[in-house]
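User: Hello! I'm new to structural biology and keep hearing that structure can be predicted from sequence alone. Could you demonstrate with Dioxygenase? Please show me the input and the output so I can see what each looks like.

Assistant: Of course. The first part below is the input, the amino acid sequence of Dioxygenase. The second part is the output, the predicted structure written as tokens.
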Amino acid sequence: MSELTDYFRNEAPGAAAETLDFWLHECSLDEAPTAVEVAEWQAVFAARGGKFLRLAEQCRQWLAEEGA
């Protein structure tokens, strides 16, 4: 999913939020991201700061819920 990580590095906050919500909550289990991927996304959002910090927090919560 490195393409998705690149997408999160460059996309606007609104579009990134919609995409993140799909991957964390709506996609099928066989498509679900790994904990490593979500941790990468969390780091990307944290580095972007500002409006992306909320998305980093969503990743952190998902990782905590998944026991990662």
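User: So the tokens describe the shape?

Assistant: Right, they're a compact way of writing down the 3D structure. Reading them back into a model, for example: The chain has one domain: 2-66.
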